[in-house]
Amino acid sequence: MSCSNQDIDLEEEYTPVPFSLEIPEIFQQKLIAPLIPNNNPLTEEGVALGKKLFFDKKLSGNNSQSCASCHKPENSFTDDTRFSDGIDGVFGVRNSMPLLNLAWNFDDKFAWDGKELGLERQALEPIVNPIEMHSDWETVVAKLEQDPEYPILFSKAFGTSSIDSSLVAKAIAQFERILISGNSKFDQYLLGNATLSLEELNGFTIFMDEEKGDCFHCHGSDNNPLWTDNMFHNNGLDTNFSDLGLGAITGDPNDYGKFRSPTLRNLIFTAPYMHDGRFTTLEEVIDHYSEGLQPSSTVDPLMKKVDQGGVQLSNQEKTSLKAFLLTLTDFEFINNPNFRD
Amino acid sequence: MLSNCSEDRDIRLNPVAITLNFSHSWNGTEITNTDFNQLKFTNENDQILSIERLRYLISEVSLTHESGEITILDDYNLVDLENNESLSFRTSEGVLPGDYNSITFRFGFKQEDNSDGAYQDLNTASFNVPEPLGGGYHFMQFDGKFINSASDEAPFLYHVISAIDPSNVNDPIDTSFTLNMGPTTIGSNTIINIQMDVSEWFKNPNTWDLNEYNINLMGNYEVQLLMNQNGSSAFDLVSITQ
Fold first, then answer.
1. Do A224 and B156 touch (CB under 8 A)?
2. Is the pTM of this model over 0.90?
3. Domains recognised in chain A with CATH numbers
4. CA of A30, closest CA in chain B: separation in Å?
5. I need a surface site. Which of A72, A126, A171, A235 has the fewest CB within 10 A?
6. Helix (H), strand (E) at residue B63
7. Chain A residues within an 8 Å CB radius of B153
8. Is B173 inside a domain boundary?
9. Rounded mean pLDDT of A297-307?
């Protein structure tokens, strides 16, 4: 009877405040509005709950890991290891993806292989994955219900103290959607508030040059400040595939070896690189596109000089390209206290 | 009776939207994205090729009324064969129902509309052209592979943009073009069914040798003009339904 009254009281308090998303000026100029699902609007209470859940180790089977264990704010919400180990010490086979600007992924396909349709569905998966957080929803919900704070926070966020997996995922997705990075040196350059060195400018020219780097077809441009197309490409890593990527999801052999283009923002924090973290430095990544491309049946035509190993950049061009890429570093994002535990 | 006639004359027609549906063929055989990534097409130059990506821009639907009045609908649409929703385009602006001598649309953007970075949805779709190549947007991104003269698989990137004359880099040549679908009657639910014959881009009037022109074509002024000529015969009206 007491509990029942508490439920009623809590539900009467349901007056969530719409969350005002801080959209960077350069995004407002260049991009369409972010995708916020009608059935999970951003609220102050929902985002706050999502943040608490994101950093809470209760969500794992032995209370040792949270989402942030593999998606650390200081690493642009990835980690610094090739593969991440779960609570049982078992390592996965993919590099943890950075989490930023996710509300502009309009195809709503997440993870390297696009298997997660929507952030809400994505947020469900690691918690029960046996090699990640290795818990189950019955246990997680019980832990949250026994916590003195969570029932109240859920009531404030969703109008009910009855916790379930769907609401947990919704809250985490809300927090993930506010992880916006749009204040790098290059953003400020585009806004006329910063200057680039000659080397950085040369690097940008190489990035945009069809006959040099030709990076813009997959990785955005000054007009697409997401610095990704969020599409799936085989970028010539392997001739034979140990990981089928998108192809394992669609079952289509034409998709074998295709992975989602990651954003180029904050690369200084996100090493190692590629879906399997095979490259430990940016130099190795640039060398791959310059000389290391491997032919295969599904290599993207945009890897156009695969027969020569790549676009054959000079050492000076590689240095300039790296200098430009580092102008996409957003320290404000990394240090934002709103994104930290 | 007189009253009825008067009422008839007073009926006000409201503008109606038009739907343009785009289908695609290879030499008349219909193709969809399920035909992608397969070396199953042969061009006019007897080269075997695959289609791996095909996106193009249409804009400026224009109708010339029997009275001579021209209505231009200020819309555009990125047709992407990997996105079925994009194959059907309903104009956001309307036109008065009636008989029209012609309906046309534009492939690409005319020069004054091809403003660099001006369209947020096209920016988000990464359809931009780098500023040194004139800026603005691709008109078409057609990527695939072909069997080259050494019998190897090789990529081609048939990207149509405004042509930059190296002798006059500040004044790109408008390589967009309009396509006239002929007379039509616009009713409350008019659907214009248009088909692109993809093979035409390799055929008419310029027989395309992929061994010669395959990658790095955006900055090739002469090649952009050849593309412009070939594209003009690539679109046909299939039907108009009411």
1. no
2. yes
3. 2-180 (1.10.760.10), 185-332 (1.10.760.10)
4. 5
5. A72
6. strand B48-65
7. 295
8. yes
9. 97
Which among A104, A216, A303 has the least Cβ separation from residue B130? A216
SS3 B78: strand
**Does residue B9 sit within a domain?**
no
Convert the pLDDT of each residue in A195-209 to its tens digit. Answer: 999 999 999 999 999
With pLDDT > 70 as the criterion, what percentage of chain A qualifies?
Answer: 96
Q: What are the chain A neighbours of B143 within 8 Å (beta carbons)?
A: 300-302
Closest Cα of chain B to A130: distance in Å?
34
Distance of alpha carbon A255 from alpha carbon A114, whole angstroms: 11
CA distances A2 to A5, A6, A8, A152, A230, Å, are 5, 6, 10, 15, 50
Is the pLDDT score of A9 beyond 70? no
Q: Is residue B153 part of a domain?
A: yes
Tens digits of residue pLDDT in A217-266:
999 999 999 999 999 999 999 999 999 999 999 999 999 999 999 999 99
Testing the interface with B: which of A30, A210, A306 to mutate, by most B Cβ within 10 A?
A210
Q: What is the pLDDT of residues B30-47, one digit of tens each?
A: 999 999 999 999 999 999
d(CA B119, CA A32): 9
The number of distinct structural domains making up chain B is: 1
B 20-59 residues inside an 8 A Cβ radius of A? 36-38, 52-53
The range of the structural domain enclosing residue B229 comes to 16-241
**B183 located within any domain:** yes
